Amino acid sequence: MTAHMSDSERFERLKRFFNNRDRLCKCLGISVIEIGHGTASTHMVIEDKHLNGADVVQGGAIFTLADLAFGAAANSHGTLALGVNMTIAFSKPGLSGELTAHARETAAAGPLSTYVVEVKDEAGETIATFQGTAYRKRDKIDLSAWG
Amino acid sequence: MTAHMSDSERFERLKRFFNNRDRLCKCLGISVIEIGHGTASTHMVIEDKHLNGADVVQGGAIFTLADLAFGAAANSHGTLALGVNMTIAFSKPGLSGELTAHARETAAAGPLSTYVVEVKDEAGETIATFQGTAYRKRDKIDLSAWG
Amino acid sequence: MTAHMSDSERFERLKRFFNNRDRLCKCLGISVIEIGHGTASTHMVIEDKHLNGADVVQGGAIFTLADLAFGAAANSHGTLALGVNMTIAFSKPGLSGELTAHARETAAAGPLSTYVVEVKDEAGETIATFQGTAYRKRDKIDLSAWG
Amino acid sequence: MTAHMSDSERFERLKRFFNNRDRLCKCLGISVIEIGHGTASTHMVIEDKHLNGADVVQGGAIFTLADLAFGAAANSHGTLALGVNMTIAFSKPGLSGELTAHARETAAAGPLSTYVVEVKDEAGETIATFQGTAYRKRDKIDLSAWG
Predict the structure, then answer these.
(1) Which pLDDT value is given to residue A5?
(2) ipTM, 2 decimals?
(3) Residue B88, min C-alpha distance to chain C (Å)
(4) Is C112 within 8 Å of chain B by CB?
């Protein structure tokens, strides 16, 4: 069935797949809001459960927000991509309100692809910059259950 | 009071601080099990809430496990250290049982310090390799509440 | 004197400083071609001395090209910035002709700033994606000798 | 012929290959001094051509030193490994004398392997910490010319 699916239908199903099946993201209130060709956006609203001992958002929550955007963008081409290496640089603390992450593909050639993700707060200031490399398998992603 | 505290007492209080105040780690069942001079170990038992859409441990959970070991090691010297940059490379999926992370300081000079963290499964195989850089402030960590 | 210098004059002097004083880049034929506010571009023409055992450009040459763009961008604000952490992901081999790198600032707050650098070949395809974090000191860069 | 080669003979030939064929390393005076199972060491003596505008060793030279150790270790198993992602954290400036890098494999499973490299100065202090991920092809490395 997936062979006849439009890109926009595929992106919609992939979004549903992530938002229903990624249990860590569900536990943390992190969700995919948009997927395009080699791009994706995610968001979360800061809650008490995201904080560290210094009462700011724990790096692991920001990493997970960025990583989900990276994962959604890397899998936007319809074949399975696995995250193999990620780097994150923190610029300022996440304090309150909504955080959003936007992933953009910088390269996709052969078995590897690379993405840059910027995480911003409500004021539009960059909280973190993330770079991820994915290993691309030839397997098609089965989205037949997510129509 | 902290001036008269032994190192082992300080490590014990720091562990209590992380395990009580880091709400993301509490939410995810991640805890510090040991702190030494520039070293720390953390662990978690894999649960359904840690999994991604492929039914293996989400990278964000493994990152958080490694990051807590990094953070505990970086703060083991008694002055405040903030994580500024982290890299993680994934080697094999986390499937079930317990994961442990061990952080070791490779350099601490001037305002920056660097750590290597290895995350292993119960079979002792490396799940992920993590490298973190911390920015060291001069502020003492107040552990007076954690005796 | 630097107090009365225009931004464009400062960028020009900074470019002269890098292109005259960075001996590794001179040795490798790498130079800064443009500096702006938080941005910089560098280039090199591939020569035999840049190649590795597989007859493609050695990763260290591409890293140095990206790192110079990062360093020039990080120092574009007039105060000294030191590179503390860099990550590079390689997408395809550099074979021949000219390579260019362009650095863009994603965040500059407090003592740290972060940059994304994309390295491209003559066909405009991405060879490597680089992320760098700099530690910003308060010292002014003395460019009085480079007028 | 390679089928009957002992490991120590293979390590010796691989070292000869790198030290003769990697033209960037030859240009910079960087060489492999030892290769083992998943390990390798490299060294360089600091010269004027390695310096940056601040008269300390340019990050690109230290990266190349670490990257060669990583590359030699990743290729020590006899099949071709390509570096895909590297991270380097700088701890203190390289000023004079000899620098050495030692690479150690932390994981090798499936198509990827990961290495930690520590770069030290003559006093044994860590200059930089490096982490590298390699993509492992099935192709044998032909060392027949390096006996």
Answers:
(1) 87
(2) 0.96
(3) 11
(4) yes
Residue contacts between B and C (CB atoms, under 8 Å): 18
Contact A146, A5 (CB under 8 A): no
When scoring C84, C85, C91 by the number of chain A Cβ atoms within 10 A, the one with the most, hence best to mutate, is: C91
Give yes or no for D115 touching C (CB within 8 A).
no
- What is the Cα–Cα distance from D61 to D69, expressed in whole angstroms? 13
Neighbours of chain B (3+ CB pairs under 8 A): A, C, D
Query: Which residue type does A96 have?
Result: S
Task: Check whether D3 has a pLDDT greater than 70.
Answer: no
Q: Give percent above pLDDT 70 in chain A.
A: 98
Region C92-101: mean pLDDT is 95
Q: Which of B109, C64, B86, C134 is nearest to D92 (CA)?
A: B109
What burial class does residue A109 get, using C-beta atoms within 10 Å of its C-beta: 0-12 exposed, 13-18 middle, 19+ buried?
middle
- Average per-residue pLDDT for chain D: 95
φ, ψ at C20 (rounded to 5°): -100, -30
- The whole-number pLDDT of residue A13 equals 96
Residue A50 has pLDDT above 60, yes or no: yes
Q: Does D22 touch chain C (CB under 8 A)?
A: yes
Radius of gyration of chain C, Cα coordinates, nearest whole angstrom: 15
pLDDT category at B147 given cuts 50, 70, 90 is: confident
The answer to whether C82 faces chain B, any CB pair under 8 Å, is no
- Average pLDDT value for residue range D6-14: 95
User: Would you call D18 an interface residue with chain C, using a CB distance cutoff of 8 Å?
Assistant: yes
**Does the beta-carbon distance from D125 to B112 stay under 8 Å?**
no
The dihedrals phi and psi of B56, each to the nearest 5 degrees, come to -120, 170
Which of B44, B57, B58 is the best substitution to test chain A (most A C-beta atoms within 10 A)?
B58
Rounded average pLDDT over A115-119: 98
Residue C69, sorted as left (phi over 0), alpha (psi -120 to 50) or beta, turns out to be alpha
Cα atoms in the 13 Å half-sphere on the side-chain side of B20: 10
At C17 the pLDDT is: 96
Give SS3 for C130: strand
All residues of chain A having their beta carbon less than 8 Å from the beta carbon of residue C59 are none
Query: Is the distance from CB of D38 to CB of D104 less than 8 angstroms?
Result: yes
| Residue D114 within any structural domain of the chain | yes
Span D91-111, average pLDDT:
95
Residues of A15-46 as b/e, b for ≥16 C-beta within 10 angstroms?
A: bebbbebbbbbebbebbbeebbebbbbbbbeb
D84 within domain boundaries: yes
Q: Does residue C3 carry a pLDDT above 90?
A: no
CATH number at residue B140: 3.10.129.10
Task: Please answer yes or no on whether B17 and A87 come within 8 Å at the CB atom.
Answer: no
Q: In what side-by-side order are the strands of the sheet with A79-90?
A: A31-36, A39-45, A98-109, A112-120, A126-140, A79-90, B79-90, B126-140, B112-120, B98-109, B39-45, B31-36
| Nearest neighbour of C112 by CB, restricted to A91, A107, A131 | A91
Whole-angstrom distance, CA of residue D142 vs CA of residue D1: 10
Number of domains in chain D: 1
What is the pLDDT, as a whole number, of residue D2? 47
How far is it, in rounded angstroms, from Cα B59 to Cα B67? 12
Look up the domain containing B36 and give its range.
2-146
